[in-house]
Amino acid sequence: MNIRDFEYLVALAEHNHFRKAAEACFVSQPTLSGQIRKLEEELGTALLERSSRRVLFTDSGRKLVAQAKTILADIQLFRELAAEQSDAMTGPIHIGFIPTVGPYLLPKIVPSLKTQFPDLSLFLHEAQTRDLVRQLEEGKLDCLILASVPETAPFREIELFNEPLSVAVPSGHEWATLNEVDMALLDGRTVLSLGDGHCLRDQALGFCFAAGASDDEQFKATSLETLRNMVAAGAGITLLPQLSLPKEREKDGVCYLPAVNPVPSRSVVLAYRPGSPLRVRFETLAQSISDTLGAVGLSS
């Protein structure tokens, strides 16, 4: 058996589908299926229930999947230890981003990172917080850039910047002539929000609920751009993070207003496993990102 066998086994357990697992491992379905069979023959035990149309693991299979995850995590740690012995900013690094940060942050920082660290190979992965946390725990990702939430508490965090949230209203809204919006004005209002799974949903709604606003239960957005378009269509108001805002105060039917009393915000951090030997690399990366964002008015 080899490392790829463990990767195939774990992928199959995560996707519960041979084709999807094969795609995740960048091999054909027959290749993955054949390797799983060979692994069973080598181990002398059945890992899957072959009579089922679904992917069902036997009791032995589930135990071995758990052990395979541990082995792969140890291998990742081994690689990190080896990387620590060389130039801190060389080789591959896998970074996870949440959808409410990645599309707006990456264009600002990637060109600078590539210029500063030409020998560093960036692999960027976008997913919701829950999935990113799991992948970081399993060693599939080296670090995460996301909003600090309770789920990230087990990790080490380096704050990159504190990002205020602005109120977005339709251009013809009664507040469009204001210079800023006191959060008390949201009392009794209904706000549009992201769907479940987005950490920004809970953070933004926390400020809105404290002000006396309620969530629009009839609509849940899948992205900030959907929220923006719904506001432009006159469907309601929302809170949007600063990085996602245009330079203009008003654009394409949406007016963006600073919120005060209090200023709603979120802390965006770089998170990594406490035992990772790549601490210096992460600190260097975080400092570079902070320096770049300082030029656009965002700081920790």
UniProtKB/TrEMBL annotation:
Domain HTH lysR-type: 1-58
Keywords: Activator, DNA-binding, Transcription, Transcription regulation
Annotated signal sequence range: none
GO MF, any single term: DNA binding
Coiled-coil stretches: none
GO CC terms, sorted: protein-DNA complex
Annotated Pfam families: HTH_1 (PF00126), LysR_substrate (PF03466)
Protein's recorded name: DNA-binding transcriptional regulator OxyR
Species the sequence originates in: Vibrio agarilyticus
